[in-house]
Amino acid sequence: MILDTPYTTAVQDRFTTTARQGDQAALDHDWLSTKLAVTRSMYSDQINKDSNASSSSSNFC
């Protein structure tokens, strides 16, 4: 019988963490790459708007 002490809980958590670490790394990679793609598209849209606005406003100078 394993007593539920902080030490045994930490050891069990460590083993389950090690077993799931590969899956979690793959999920983290997918999440980060998706977030990066969304952020990049948002910023590129904003940059395009800014450059269009500056080019159209420079015509009035």
Describe this structure in words.
By secondary structure, the protein is mostly helical. It is 87% helix and 0% strand. It is built from one helix and no strands. It has one helix spanning 6-58. The model has no long low-confidence stretch (mean pLDDT 71).
Question: How would you summarize the topology of this molecule?
Answer:
Layout: H1 6-58
| Percent in strands | under 5%
Structural class: mainly alpha
Strand count, sense and barrel status of the largest sheet are: none
Number of DSSP helices? 1
* N to C succession of SSEs: H
Overall mean confidence score, pLDDT: 71
What level of helicity do the residues show? over 70%
Which overall shape is indicated by the principal axes computed on the Cα atoms? rod-shaped
